[in-house]
Design goal:
The protein is an alpha+beta fold. It has a single domain, classed as Beta-lactamase (3-Layer(aba) Sandwich), CATH 3.40.710. The protein has an 8-stranded antiparallel beta sheet, sandwiched between helices. Strands 3-6 form a two-stranded antiparallel sheet. Strands 4-5 form a two-stranded antiparallel sheet. α2 crosses α7. It starts with a helix and ends with a helix. The N terminus is likely disordered.
């Protein structure tokens, strides 16, 4: 019996050592990928990744959060999370669907009759998976010209940005194509407000922040970022410009205005993927995937769900969202049990719609590093 117990103890120790070795190997690969990314010509000043396997949360970083102070990036630093805000508006909407307050078949005409009649047939489901055909307000030349002249303009009440495209018809019949549109999630939040009589801030607090225990996440209208924060940079100008506070956020609102931290984002995506905000039946609807990719495109093969994307990497599938905004590019994803997750952020914008020649290899390296982070989580 003593001999058997001794052998069992040795086997257990060997298993633990093997597991630790594999995790360390995956972590080293991620560290190396991040260092290569930051060292590239045109690479970001800094990069940070939070990988969590079960209760083990590991922070990886390279470069700096602030070119002036040379401070390292920290998982408790604030940053603009850009289009990952769409996952939050998706979480709010699906929570309300789960409670019977909203339906995925609710139309714009039913919930928001003041919006153009030409958009009336579009459903909440089509808004959430970007098959609505709505024109994208962020591509309107008049709006972009105004932001260039007066970048701190406040667009209140929320949703007024839609007036820049409310004279335009749908790009295609709803549900016939996939086309990513920032207008979609503005309308999602407006529908949630109309259905509940509560503000979007209030809905985020009750439906998302509280269940996921988020304490450093907010959706501001202005241009300021809570300190401490990761500074975002424009590397396409000489000298490099800090554009962290260049724009007020009211114009992107539910589509891209949220500020959070890598730690809070890790907690959010684990909760979102593992149904903390809604039940299995609602997630089954969420994961009826269509052909389409997030912007910027995430690692591996991308498919679109309702407020979420599936990323099939070389190591397996994870579910999450990407984002990009002047100064920032990010990726979050988790397994559907919420047990394994990866959060990745850099402090410059890499927008797949408008990459310079220098940025193209950097973006390719970013996607490889994001996939490496996902693989580290799945190890």
């Amino acid at each position: 019996m003593p001999r058997l117990l001794a052998l069992s103890a040795v086997a257990a120790l060997l298993a633990l050592a093997s597991s630790a070795s594999a995790a360390t190997s995956a972590d080293r690969e991620l560290d190396a990928a991040m260092k290569r990314l930051v060292a590239m010509k045109g690479g970001p000043p800094g990069a940070i990744s939070v990988v969590q396997r079960g209760e083990q949360r590991t922070v990886h970083r390279a470069g700096v959060a602030n070119l002036k102070g040379r401070a390292p990036l920290r998982s408790t630093d604030h940053m603009r999370i850009a289009s990952m805000s769409k996952a939050f508006s998706g979480a709010v909407a699906l929570s309300l669907v789960d409670k019977g307050v909203l339906s995925l078949d609710d139309t714009i005409a039913q919930r928001l009759p003041s919006l153009p009649a030409a958009w009336g047939q579009v459903t909440l489901r089509q808004l959430l998976d970007h098959t609505s055909g709505l024109p994208d307000f962020t591509k309107d030349k008049a709006l972009l010209a105004l932001l260039e002249r007066k970048p701190h303009t406040l667009f209140l009440p929320h949703g007024t940005v839609l007036t820049y495209v409310d004279d335009r018809r749908l790009h295609f019949a709803p549900d016939s194509e996939y086309r990513y549109s920032n207008s979609d999630n503005i309308v999602v939040a407006l529908m949630a407000q109309a259905a509940t009589g509560r503000t979007y801030d209030e809905l985020l607090a009750s439906e998302v922040y509280a269940p996921a225990s988020l304490t450093q996440t907010s959706v501001p209208d202005g241009f300021r970022i809570p300190a401490p924060y990761i500074h975002g940079y424009d590397l396409t100008v000489d000298p490099t410009e800090d554009i962290s506070t260049a724009l007020s956020m009211s114009f992107v609102w539910a589509s891209g205005a949220i500020i959070s931290t890598p730690d809070d984002l890790t907690s959010f995506i684990r909760a979102y993927a593992s149904r903390k905000f809604f039940g299995q039946a609602t997630q089954d609807q969420q994961l009826r995937l269509v052909g389409g990719h997030s912007k910027p495109i995430g690692p591996g093969r991308n498919l679109a769900g309702l407020g979420i994307f599936q990323y099939t990497t070389r190591c397996g599938a994870v579910y999450g969202h990407t984002g990009n905004f002047p100064g920032y590019t990010q990726f979050i994803a988790a397994t559907l049990d919420g047990n394994r997750s990866a959060t990745f952020a850099i402090n410059t914008q890499l927008n797949t719609d408008d990459l310079t020649r220098t940025q193209r290899p950097v973006f390719a390296a970013l996607r490889r590093a994001e996939e490496t982070a996902a693989c580290a989580a799945l190890e």
